[in-house]
Amino acid sequence: MHDIRTIRADPAAFDAALARRGLQPVAASVMELDTARRAAQTALQEKQSRRNALAKEIGQGKRTGADTAALEAEATALRGDMDGLEKRVPELDAAIRRVLEGLPNILDPSVPDGPDETANVVLKQHLQPRDFAFTPKQHFELGEALGMMDFATAAKLAGARFTVLRGPLARMERALGQFMLDQHTQQRGYLETTVPSLVNEATAYGTGNLPKFEEDLFRTTDGRYLIPTAEVPLTNTVAGEIVTEKQLPLRLTALTDCYRSEAGSAGRDTRGMLRQHQFRKVELVTIAHPDKSGEEHEWMTRSAEIILEKLGLPYRRMLLSSGDTGFASTRTHDLEVWLPGQQMYREISSCSNCKDFQARRMNARFRGGPEGKTVAHVHTLNGSGVAVGRALIAVMENYQQEDGSIVVPEVLRPYMGGLELIAA
After folding, report:
1. Among this protein's residues, is 347 annotated catalytic?
2. Contacts of 313 (CB under 8 A, 6+ apart)
3. Distance (Å, rounded) from C-alpha 275 to C-alpha 93?
4. Is pLDDT at 264 greater than 70 in this prediction?
5. Which end of the chain has a smaller Cβ tally under 10 Å, C or N?
6. What average pLDDT score do residues 291-318 get?
7. pTM value?
8. 97 catalytic, yes or no?
9. Exposed, middle or buried by CB within 10 Å (0-12, 13-18, 19+), for 230?
10. What is the rounded distance in angstroms from the CA atom of residue 229 to the CA atom of residue 278?
11. pLDDT per residue as tens digits for the range 322-381
12. How far apart are CA 375 and CA 249, in angstroms?
């Protein structure tokens, strides 16, 4: 959510910032609504003052026996005017809010301009892809041949874009999640948190999922929403709160199932488990001091990178362009892991700094400064630390052997009872 004062201060700059995202100017229409709201608010206050003055005059007149009929007539007319203004002010407030809540965050100056992912910039690369002596297979070919990845049964149970895992592959998925949580909590200072998988409308609104992206969410019959990521409940733990400056940064992590309708993704990644309606992910969320969110963005990105490095997976860090940066983000790093079966890099983590964009929607603030007299909005950050299903895919494809077996990475073996090889 944007601060209306920012638009008032420099409407042209605000429109120029939106233009970087390919959006048309809106400042003039917002200012028109804002001017009308402020005028209505001023008129209401003036009439309230006159009402109070009339009440005193009528009271004094009645005590002295004076004729107060004219004053009472004015008061009656004034009440009618006030009724209209008392309705008009919140209507204009709501109209302004509807416009602002549909506008994306302002991009950081460091974000490169570009229409889509083709303009993303490679910031770093870790490891060179393995040189296979055979043609590497995709994860679903490996999993089905092992008899441990079953899409047909999943389709029978729930439809397309679901997967049933069995045996060692199911255990490896569990091992990956546990390994990630241990790393983030024991080595990187994140607090493990268990959160609901169902959230109310206010919570989904707070992170920017509503109202703009409602079609991407699964909604229950009682008006709740299945979480698309643990970012939603984790970030909202500070909604409506004022935390102390000493509590910052507040680093949180959770392993949850995530649910996405994948609206608009028809025909994309229909084979395998790259794009699912239900998947597991370790989420990282930080509630930060405004002066420190840039540092926290780097800390969060490195936390995700360390997971991939310990798993021995080739990856690269990308800085997303203006056309590829998400709605709530001001700057985003994507981590893309190499998948030998596809012969391409695919996203496995996305780490974003939202600055105060979500905090304004949630009214999440902190108290600091001299004697704790300063109250300001916090900055929020979120990232994947990392997507468990995609990590499973990456391990399967990068550690596959010519006979279709899969070597278990050393860091996962303690979580898998010492198992070193997954074979049929």
Report:
1. yes
2. 127, 337, 338, 391, 394, 395, 398
3. 39
4. no
5. C
6. 98
7. 0.93
8. no
9. buried
10. 10
11. 999 999 999 999 999 999 999 999 999 999 999 999 999 999 999 998 888 899 999 999
12. 16
Residue 222: which residues within 8 A CB-CB, separation 6 or more?
A: none
> What token pair was written down for 209?
């999922």
Average pLDDT, the chain: 96
Identify the active-site residue in 130, 302, 347, 360. Answer: 347
- Per the annotation, the verdict on 268 as an active-site residue is no
Q: HSE-up of 17 (CA within 13 Å, CB side)?
A: 18
At the fourth CATH level, the homologous superfamily of domain 117-422 is: Bira Bifunctional Protein; Domain 2 (3.30.930.10)
* Among 188, 260, 280, 361, the one annotated catalytic: 260
Peptide bond into 249 cis (omega under 30): yes
Residues 102-155 pLDDT 10s:
999 999 999 999 999 999 999 999 999 999 999 999 999 999 999 999 999 999
Is 302 a catalytic site residue? no
CATH 3.90.1010.10, applies to 4-101: no
For residue 8 the two structure tokens come to 């008032």
Residue 79, number of CB atoms within 10 A of its CB: 12
* Position 387 pLDDT exceeds 80: yes
Contact present, 254 and 195 (Cβ < 8 Å): yes
Q: Active site residue: 174, 275, 316, 346, which one? A: 275
**Same fold for the domain at 4-101 and the one at 117-422?**
no
Q: Where do the domains of the chain lie?
A: 4-101, 117-422
Closest CA to 358 of 181, 213, 221, 238: 238
Q: Decide if 390 is catalytic.
A: yes
